[in-house]
Amino acid sequence: MGLRALTLALALAAGPALADTIRIATYSPDLSRDGPGLLLRDILSGKDEQIAAVVQVIAAADADVLLLTGFDWDHDGATLSAFADLLEAAGAGYPHRHASRPNSGMATGLDLDGDGRTGTGDDAQGFGLFSGQGGMVLLSRLPLGEVTDHSGLLWRDMPGNLMPKASPEVDEVQRLSSTAHWEVPVSVGGTTLTLMAWSATPPIFDGPEDRNGRRNHDEAVFWLTRLPPDRFVLMGDTNLDPVDGDGRREGIAALLDRVQDPRPKSEGAALAPQDGANAVQKGDPALDTADWPDADGPGNLRVDVVLPSPDLTVTGSGVLWPAPGRPLADTVAAASRHRLAWVDLELPLTGTATAASSPRPSP
Predict the structure, then answer these.
(1) From residue 246, how far is each of 7, 94, 203, 209, 288 by CA, in Å?
(2) CA-to-CA distance for 288 and 271, rounded, in angstroms?
(3) Closest alpha carbon to 321 in 293, 296, 302, 298
(4) How far apart are the C-alpha atoms of 261 and 349, rounded to whole Å?
(5) Which of 54-68, 120-134, 189-203, 344-358 has the lowest mean pLDDT?
(6) First-last CA distance in the chain
(7) In the predicted model, what is the mean pLDDT of residues 60-78?
(8) What are the tens digits of pLDDT across the range 83-113?
(9) Which of 163, 80, 87, 155 has the alpha carbon at shortest distance from 125?
(10) What is the DSSP string of 181-211?
(11) How far is CA 297 from CA 178, 291, 294, in A?
(12) Starting at the edge strand that comes first in sequence, how are the strands of the sheet with 148-149 ordered?
């Protein structure tokens, strides 16, 4: 158990009214492979440099609750267990975990994308070459309550949806979530914090019907009907920058109107070259969380978010993207195209009165 986790555990056991700061983070570590079992193979080999870099990033972030997107799922949970063992050995143990079957790679037997073929990655409920490719994982030092999984909701059944016209057969099976939508209660002393986690489809890779763009929009808008009155955090990979890049931004804009946006920044993103696609962007580059190609790609974008409800007290935030030459800079770059985004929240641990806690050091 790390020092931060030990401090939190002692505070919870102490009993008197206290407040403490917990760190909530989201990260897309590119822990997905081209076939089932390959990620587990690479984890168990102990020789994969990218996996080793991801472990270092997670350990450095020191999050109390961490959502991982883009992590391959398997029925027995062997991959997650093996990865959790690596984290434990690195001093980043997470005893509470959730990883239910995602829609990504879930075969439908239908031609969902209308290309005249079936059985391709685009014909799964969410893009994937096998069931569970690029799923989601929630890791926590704090107890998790019963998870509400909305991943089975049919797209057609979402009120006000933008689903393009499709055959009756497709209408009857097509789910809204490309990966998953989870509501997860987290126990923090006498307080419950509700996490609302999702990983959306990219709003590109389609045709004039804008199927992916419409779905990305609706995956965000879905949460507008589910937001609790207080103490919640929206988090995950939106695959949509609120300002730059492709996509329909009305949905994420509506969500941002209902939450706090701490606007986590990093020195590394601020110092990234502003050429190619980056040169024509309008958003603050310091907010970016993904380092994508600038010459023939979308450039750097802000797609990984942690958005607390308005009633929560934010004491810090950031993106783990060090400037070139700084400690961990090469490790972060080797781990993933995405960067870990984190937000610190002050929450009461027990009782009704609170006492201010010390700020947490940035990773």
Answers:
(1) 43, 36, 7, 14, 15
(2) 11
(3) 302
(4) 24
(5) 344-358
(6) 17
(7) 97
(8) 999 999 999 999 999 999 999 999 999 999 8
(9) 155
(10) EEEEEEEETTEEEEEEEEEPPPS-SS-TT-H
(11) 22, 10, 5
(12) 148-149, 181-188, 191-199, 232-237, 304-308
pLDDT of residue 6: 52
SS3 56: helix
0.70 surpassed by pTM:
yes
Give percent of the chain above pLDDT 90. 85
Q: How far apart are CA 106 and CA 257, in angstroms?
A: 33
From 183, 213, 210, 180, select the one nearest 198 (Cα to Cα).
Answer: 180
10 Å Cβ neighbour count for 89?
Answer: 11
Which residue matches tokens 């998953």? 180
Domains annotated for the chain, with CATH where assigned, are 21-340 (3.60.10.10)
Q: What is the pLDDT of residues 296-345, one digit of tens each?
A: 889 999 999 999 999 999 999 999 999 999 999 999 999 999 999 999 99
CA distance 351 to 318: 30
Residue 99, SS3?
coil
Assess contact for 147 and 103: CB atoms under 8 A: no
pLDDT tier for residue 17 given thresholds of 50, 70 and 90: very low
